[in-house]
């Protein structure tokens, strides 16, 4: 099945993406497969992955370090939007996909490829995110998804790879499917497919069990500039360093675990386990700082925008006109969201215990109940009369 001559394949080094290389060449007539592995801070040793692609038949094997862009151009925007899918999941995996799509398209254009390919199956969200993002960035490129079409079981896939010299993976005792990057880990499959089963402690890596967390609380101060986190305890951090340090500090207190039944875009419910210490605390702190620096109407209206933004990102529409329009609104709201938030970390809980900003809209003289109170209490009666007038007229008309 000749579909393309030169293809750039999103490559992870796993079974599916490795088998995609000979499959594309021998079953679909692709002449040349270039692989591209994205370094998103997953911690894998990428040189062996690069070499494995060449051994599997790739003509060229590329590795792109995109950690800095991942945080600055994707994660920080999600923090400014307080993006939590179904009010729980901070989009760690979803945010990586439009970035991978972007470098896939750029690489295809650089090398004169006529198609890009990925190893996604037909059941997940990532196929949508890759396909739609790539089409938005370059609608002339073909998009190939062999694993979505080949119909092979995992055993058959491994056997197919062995025919072309791809070694079978060393049998792992772990039955879990894990995706990891700088923003966190997602864990599924195995016993986790039973929504009634408690996740075994062995699945976690970024967060400590509560029994092993420190017996004393730890306080951290996170500084924001226009909605973007920039400092920890008053010390400026580059974007990657900030996320890495918070992951370690927050996870050490057992904070950042999520166990949820998630509604996938393709229509099925999936039991998902996430670890995302830094992102959860950053969103919590950012939202709190907004409560201090945004007017009530902007703050309330922004909640609806945040929900729409989160749905768009989760559903693979990062490069869409609506996403761009929402970005403009969100960026406008962030102009005054600068200041510091103090967070108490203790036994699985992150509690906001203080916040301050030069742009604070909080007035102690108006809020106090002490002698310094400057609020005009007499004005309240007239306000209540006008505010309640429609309700009073309705009650009279209803015969009450």
From TrEMBL:
Domain Arginosuccinate synthase C-terminal, residue spans? 176-394
- UniProtKB keywords: Amino-acid biosynthesis, Arginine biosynthesis, ATP-binding, Cytoplasm, Ligase, Nucleotide-binding
Q: Can you tell me which residues bind L-citrulline? A: 89, 125, 129, 177, 186, 262, 274
Give the reaction(s) catalysed. L-citrulline + L-aspartate + ATP = 2-(N(omega)-L-arginino)succinate + AMP + diphosphate + H(+)
Give the SUPFAM superfamilies listed for this entry: Adenine nucleotide alpha hydrolases-like (SSF52402), Argininosuccinate synthetase, C-terminal domain (SSF69864)
* Cellular component terms per the entry's GO annotation: cytoplasm
What are the binding positions for ATP in this chain? 10-18, 38, 119
Which GO molecular function annotations are given, in alphabetical order? argininosuccinate synthase activity; ATP binding
This entry's Enzyme Commission designation comes to 6.3.4.5
InterPro entries per the UniProt record, alphabetical = Arginosuc_syn_C, Arginosuc_syn_N, Arginosuc_synth, Arginosuc_synth_CS, Arginosuc_synth_type_1_subfam, AS_cat/multimer_dom_body, Rossmann-like_a/b/a_fold
Q: Where does the record place it?
A: Cytoplasm
Recorded metabolic or biological pathway in which this protein acts: Amino-acid biosynthesis; L-arginine biosynthesis; L-arginine from L-ornithine and carbamoyl phosphate: step 2/3
All copies of the Arginosuccinate synthase-like N-terminal domain together span 6-167
Q: Where does L-aspartate bind?
A: 121, 125-126
Q: How does it assemble?
A: Homotetramer.
Q: Which PANTHER family match?
A: ARGININOSUCCINATE SYNTHASE
As for family, the record states: Belongs to the argininosuccinate synthase family. Type 1 subfamily.
- What's this protein's name? Argininosuccinate synthase
Q: Which organism is it from?
A: Amazonocrinis nigriterrae CENA67
């Amino acid at each position: 099945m000749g579909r393309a001559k030169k293809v750039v394949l999103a490559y992870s080094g796993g079974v599916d993406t490795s088998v995609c290389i000979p499959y594309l060449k021998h079953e679909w007539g692709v002449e040349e497969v270039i692989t591209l592995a994205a370094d998103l801070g997953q911690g894998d040793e990428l040189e062996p992955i690069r070499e494995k692609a060449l051994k599997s038949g790739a003509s060229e094997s590329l590795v792109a370090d995109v950690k800095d862009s991942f945080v600055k151009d994707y994660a920080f925007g999600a923090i400014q939007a307080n993006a939590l899918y179904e009010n729980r999941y901070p989009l760690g995996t979803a945010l990586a996909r439009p970035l991978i799509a972007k470098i896939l398209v750029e690489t295809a254009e650089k090398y004169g490829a006529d198609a890009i390919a990925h190893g996604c199956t037909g059941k997940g969200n990532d196929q949508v995110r890759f396909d739609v993002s790539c089409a938005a960035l370059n609608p002339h490129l073909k998009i190939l998804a062999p694993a979505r079409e080949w119909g092979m079981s995992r055993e058959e896939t491994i056997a197919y790879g062995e025919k072309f010299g791809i070694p079978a993976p060393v049998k792992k005792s772990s039955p879990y499917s894990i995706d990891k990057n700088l923003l966190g880990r997602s864990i599924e499959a195995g016993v986790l497919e039973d929504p009634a089963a408690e996740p075994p402690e062995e699945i976690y890596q970024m967060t400590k069990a509560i029994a092993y967390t420190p017996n004393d609380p730890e306080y951290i101060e996170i500084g924001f500039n226009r909605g973007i986190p920039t400092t920890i305890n008053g010390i400026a951090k580059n974007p990657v360093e900030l996320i890495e340090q918070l992951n370690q500090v927050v996870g050490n207190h057992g904070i950042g675990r999520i166990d949820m039944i998630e509604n996938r875009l393709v229509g099925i419910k999936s039991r998902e386990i996430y670890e995302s210490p830094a992102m959860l605390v950053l969103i919590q702190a950012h939202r709190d700082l907004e409560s201090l620096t945004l007017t009530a109407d902007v703050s309330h209206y922004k909640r609806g925008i945040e929900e729409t933004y989160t749905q768009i990102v989760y559903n693979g529409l990062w490069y869409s006109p609506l996403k761009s329009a929402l970005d403009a609104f969100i960026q406008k709201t962030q102009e005054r969201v600068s200041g510091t938030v103090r967070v108490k970390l203790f036994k699985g809980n992150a509690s906001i215990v203080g916040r301050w900003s030069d742009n604070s809209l909080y007035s102690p003289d108006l809020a106090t109940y002490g002698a310094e109170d400057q609020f005009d209490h007499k004005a309240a009666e007239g306000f209540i009369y006008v505010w309640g007038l429609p309700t009073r007229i309705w009650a009279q008309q209803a015969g009450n």
